Amino acid sequence: MDVLDHECPSCGANIPFNPKTQRWDCKYCGASYTLEDFEKYDKELKKEEEKDKEIDVEMDEYLCPNCGAKVITDKNTSATFCVYCGSTNILKNRLQGEFKPSKVIPFKNTKEEAVDKFYKFSKKKWFAPKEFCSKKNIKKVEGVYIPFWLYDCDVIGGIVANAQSISRWTSGDYEYVKTDYYLCSRDGSMTFEKVPVDGSTKFQDDIMDSIEPYDYSEMKDFNASYLSGFLAEKYDVEKDDAYSRAKSRVKNSAVQRLEENIPFSNITLASDTLNVQKVKDDYVLMPVWLLNINYKGKMQTFAMNGQTGKMVGNVPISAKKLILIALIMEVVLVMIFTLFLYVL
């Protein structure tokens, strides 16, 4: 992961990116800057030769021996906590190489909003333990840019599917059911744009899929200034390896669209001749708030989409609430049965 802090041109203090104002607001002198202001300031000081080399700085890499996560920071930042597993035993090494995504979606939600959304999300779960939502259980809340591969793909081909048409009618005292069977084929071509696949093995795919979608209309050309005040995960899934999952998602979506054009029911795919071709791929960063919750000695991770505010995570179930609900249902059933016998 990567933490880059910009210095305030006015007072020299670290100045983080503010998701609410979409600017860089200094908490010390009150100055506020846009991305264009920073670019002008950097040029004047000759701190970068060209835009695509703007993150060519000294970096440290911290390795978590517990889960294998890699945290990338600038030389002045110390990482003492793994946002994935909660371990404080991390090792420091000098990082070699560069981290250059092409696009980024900036954070729009604050840390306070992430915590508030966690409380609301957990309290909506009927069987959640009351003490689970306690503030003392929140051990760490961190804004992290997660690496994603985006793919543009073309699909051409067709499917063959079995389908049924069921009709019912009544004649006299008899009810009739007629089932017609069909073998249907559909062909077509489609284009899919920006199909996302997360580039980190630290996150479960179902979690990353669950916090989608992102609004790509708010995607910006990558600039290191957006990372100020946040972490950034270093991808460990190569684009060719990630493409196999994107290809599967594209193919499944294409099958679904073709099946929607079959005017029958009980449709089952028999075969397909779909050919998926990759047109373009991009390496981008997506904003995610990670919340480490320590409940009864077990660390659990919740994730919130840093752009839309969508929260995902597994809330534990209270055994006491389950037993209570079961007892209430049993009493209600007994009352209904007793009332039924009384009526008879």
What does this structure look like?
22% of the residues lie in helices and 38% in strands. The protein has 2 domains: 2-149 and 195-239 and 283-313, no CATH class; 317-344. It has helices spanning 35-44, 111-123, 205-210, 239-259, 319-343; strands at 2-3, 6-7, 14-15, 17-18, 23-25, 32-33, 59-63, 70-74, 91-94, 103-104, 138-171, 174-198, 220-221, 231-232, 265-272, 275-295, 298-305, 311-312. It has 5 helices and 18 strands. Strands 10, 11, 12, 13, 14, 15, 16, 17 and 18 form a 9-stranded mixed beta sheet that branches. The chain has a 4-stranded mixed beta sheet with strand order 1-8-7-9, with no helix packed on it. It is an alpha+beta fold and 344 residues long. The model has no long low-confidence stretch (mean pLDDT 80). Strand 4 (17-18) and strand 5 (23-25) form a beta hairpin.
Task: Provide the succession of SSEs.
Answer: EEEEEEHEEEEHEEHEEHEEEEH
The quaternary organization reads as single chain
Helix percentage: 10-25%
Query: Count the strands?
Result: 18
Which whole number gives the mean pLDDT?
80
Q: What would you report as the Rg, rounded to the nearest angstrom?
A: 27 Å
Poorly predicted regions are none
As for the number of domains, it is 2
Total of DSSP H or I helical runs spanning 4+ residues: 5
Which structural class fits the helix and strand makeup? alpha+beta
Summarize the main sheet.
Answer: 9 strands, mixed
Measured distance between first and last alpha carbons: 71 Å
Molecular shape? flat
**What is the percentage of strand-forming residues?**
35-45%
